[in-house]
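name: query_chain
kind: protein
chains: 1
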Amino acid sequence: MTASDRIKPLVAIVGRPNVGKSTLINRLVGARKAIVDDQPGVTRDRAYFDVDWTGRDFTVIDTGGFTDARPDEPFAERINEQAAIAQAEADVIVLLLDGRSGMTPIDQAIANDLRRLKKPVIAAVNKIDAPQQAGDIAEFYALGLGDPIAVSALHGFGGVGDLLDAICAALPDASPDTEGEASDTTIRMAIVGRPNVGKSSLLNALSGQERAIVSEVSGTTRDAVEASFTRTRADGAQTRFVAVDTAGIRKKSKVPYGIEMFSVDRAIRAIREADVTALILDAETGVTDQDKRLVETSNKAGRPLVIVVNKWDCVSNKKPNSHETYRKELLSYLPHGDFALMIFVSAKTGQRIERILDAVETAYANARRRIRTHLVNQVIAEAVSLHPPPVIKNRGLNILYATQGEVDPPTFILFANDAKLMKDDYRRYLEKKLRESFDFTGSPVRLAVRTRESRR
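structure:
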């Protein structure tokens, strides 16, 4: 994340594993945003969260714990790299220490490295959960980082407020030019899919930075990882993207309680909070039942949908019409996603990566499209005259009036003589006619039918 992609100062929370960094993040944010578990090494990638304290806004970065790279921890070196990147881009660094276990050689090594950065560094000693434990912070003065601040991230009392005050005091002064910097549009996109389909690789390719750890090991990504970047179009207008890489989602029956279940919950929440869902499929394995559930989850949330078929470079014997043939085959398994935009890419080679952003912008715009009422009525009237609704028990559906009630997703309200006479197949027919008349590609469309009371 470069300075041009953000307007809030960054605060990196660093330290060795299991000192309570994610717990402190949740305390600072005021919500359970970061995954917390007693198992060391739960956090792997850099995760960004916004904090507001006494009117000052800043962003905290949750990082994996610095540790010695060991053969039994395959991601240790990559985790250290992610934490080092967070330190390099941060304006202020908080070194979180464990007051129970005391100072360790790793703490001393981290402190020595931080002093070389020539940035404000605040030492915070966590797990000081009672006043009588305050003396446990004395040994941390030897780190040479000033007065350590005793905190209890778990319980919230102690010096959490003092830590926030110290962070705000160390933040750089807000620049009027920077604070006024804003893109024309900001689109939040959730990158979802099954494990190992290339979600993290695509996030890194889209953002142009190593934001997420990429590995062939299934389940590498655990928490939702964000990357912000800005795209400038030929007309000078800018679009700011916030791409959220989520954990791979497996069948619920195969997900044990614990870290992976929390990761899946984060991924589902990312869909609900996003502006656009980008479903990543593996070109070699195709569609699974879990992909169908993800499409249904996105539809229920009313999110525009872009289907990204990754690893297209691995498909052999491609022909000029392979895209269309493959698309029809995929949609035969994903009937509820037939409105989606579909892009065939390769995160490995970079093939058509830029078109993902084109598709996301198109789906975002179409989901916010508003149609004038007289045009809606005209299309509905023509559809009814071409194919009248079926008569049920000597009663026929009579659509009296139609209008668009909402956008995101486009929602049309049909006033009829009896809403119960609207059957699902006829509802789908009317939706199809609306799609044929207006461009809602990439966006779900909803029809609500209301019974209009008869007037005397």
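note: The mean pLDDT is 81.
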